[in-house]
Amino acid sequence: MSKESKKKKWSQEVTEKSDALDLEEGVFKSDDPAKIAHSLKRSAEASDRRKSTPFRSAMSMLTFYINRAGAGLSRRQRHVLEKVKAELRKDFGREPK
């Protein structure tokens, strides 16, 4: 197994089996930023394994996914996922950036 495929396998495993959050199947594939944000919030609040606040756990998982997907994300999907950040802030009663 090449070094490249080990990296992909590692990040895929983290996304699928995170120790912090149990994500809904295909959550990041939605075109609706609010739906993704609500799902991340539910997962973060329901988790008893997270090491941080629900907000930070949800935002960390989103950022991790965006960074790991990298060039594999379409411009449109990247835009949707960037909007999720604002939705998460709104859902958790945080000030928008």
Write the layout of secondary structure elements.
Elements: H1 3-16, H2 33-46, H3 54-69, H4 75-91
Helix pairs in contact: 2-3, 2-4, 3-4
What does this structure look like?
This protein is mostly helical and 97 residues long. It is built from four helices and no strands. Helix 2 packs across helix 4 and helix 3 packs antiparallel against helix 4.
In short, what is this structure?
The chain is built from 4 helices and no strands. It is mostly helical and 97 residues long.
Structural class designation = mainly alpha
Order of helices and strands: HHHH
On the 0 to 100 scale, the average pLDDT is: 83
Counted beta strands: 0
Salient structural properties:
97 residues; mainly alpha; globular
